[in-house]
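Key result, reporting period 2: structure in, sequence out.
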């Protein structure tokens, strides 16, 4: 696969769901590939499993280009990629999505019936042939299987034991596969990020939580007593409320970038997070998202600042503090100040969510998280 192909695969949007939601697009792709292209009789293409399976459809340039399904018993099937989009990694991404769903729900292994011509593709994704080849609808197939629970040393074990983990902890991690370790960490971080955004991006998300509530800038706090004696107390209170409302409006913009950061996580990132301190998650997300999130937050904050009349109110009060030499240059712009404090609150909340998962992985509701983070405790 060349670089352009990989870029195309990463640009594809994956949607997972039931047959009622994705059946029209998945069915059209399967008809094009299996019925028209390969000549498989239409009556063999449709069965009762469609209504009971999880389906995945990949979209690229506004069109469905790939699909596959995961059955309740752990079988993957009906993998199809549109002819003009093959060789771009679309099938690999669909397969990865279905494998991730199987792992998340606790499947210990997955199987599929592969056409012999694409056997090398599945081998590259960790599947191994089981038994002899056989004929199915006039096409040579081979049964293939992939275990989701490895018996070797896991990625977590290599990371933690390599840094001096105790034999007891290392033994607990022996039953965790490389895929499980990476999956658990990604699921935990993505879930923590989503919950943090949900908690903060609502009315009162910042204002009603002392941990993240955006206060007056240092300069205004130092001048607060004097300003209140000058009859400006109500304006100060309204300023604080308005700043926090602006932050609450901006936070939902973060979710897409946070999820993208999780999906880009490398083994080195995983090592830093798994073995780091309480701020390891904050450091990871800051390194990947602080600059782009600042750019994304600023227009939203600016819009809210304008709508709430916040800039005029802030500038008037900042002018008073500035004359007293109490306001730092970085706090002179209300838009920048609110954006910076909103990001600080978001990263703090994400770290809290991740610490909660580490402390009690069972509450996360994921068997994979329970296995991996339970072993790390």
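The corresponding designed sequence is given below.
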């Amino acid at each position: 696969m060349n670089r352009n192909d990989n870029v195309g695969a990463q640009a594809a949007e994956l949607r997972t769901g039931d047959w009622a939601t994705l059946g029209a697009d998945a069915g059209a792709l399967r008809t094009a590939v299996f019925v028209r292209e390969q000549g498989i009789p239409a009556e063999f293409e449709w069965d009762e499993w469609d209504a009971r399976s999880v389906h995945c459809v990949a979209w690229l340039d506004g069109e469905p280009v790939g699909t596959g399904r995961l059955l309740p018993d752990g079988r993957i099937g009906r993998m199809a990629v549109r002819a003009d989009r093959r060789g771009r990694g679309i099938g690999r991404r669909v397969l990865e999505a279905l494998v991730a769903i199987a792992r998340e729900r606790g499947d210990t292994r997955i199987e599929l019936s592969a056409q012999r011509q694409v056997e090398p593709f599945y081998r590259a994704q960790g599947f191994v042939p089981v038994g002899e080849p056989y004929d199915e609808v006039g096409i040579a197939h081979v049964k293939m299987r992939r275990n989701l629970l490895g018996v070797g040393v896991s990625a977590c074990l290599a990371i933690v034991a390599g840094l001096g983990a105790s034999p007891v902890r290392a033994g607990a991690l022996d039953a965790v596969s490389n895929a499980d370790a990476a999956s658990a960490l990604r699921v935990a971080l993505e879930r923590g990020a989503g919950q943090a955004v949900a908690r903060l991006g609502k009315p009162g998300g910042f204002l009603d939580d002392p941990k993240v509530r955006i206060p007056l800038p240092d300069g205004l706090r130092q001048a607060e007593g004097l300003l209140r004696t000058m009859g400006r107390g109500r304006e100060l209170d309204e300023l604080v409320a308005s700043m926090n409302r602006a932050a609450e409006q901006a936070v939902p913009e973060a979710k897409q970038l946070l999820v993208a950061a999780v999906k880009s996580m490398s083994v080195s990132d995983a090592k830093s997070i798994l073995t780091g301190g309480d701020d390891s998650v904050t450091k990871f997300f800051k390194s990947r998202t602080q600059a782009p999130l600042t750019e994304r937050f600023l227009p939203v904050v600016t819009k809210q600042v304008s709508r709430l009349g916040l800039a005029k109110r802030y500038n008037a009060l900042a002018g008073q503090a500035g004359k007293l030499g109490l306001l730092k240059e970085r706090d002179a712009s209300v838009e920048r100040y609110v954006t910076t404090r909103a990001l600080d609150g978001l990263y703090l909340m994400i770290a809290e969510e991740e610490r909660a998962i580490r402390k009690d992985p069972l509450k996360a509701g994921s068997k994979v998280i329970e296995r991996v983070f339970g072993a790390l405790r």
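The mean pLDDT is 75. The chain is about 55% helix and 15% strand. This case is discussed further under Risks and Mitigation.
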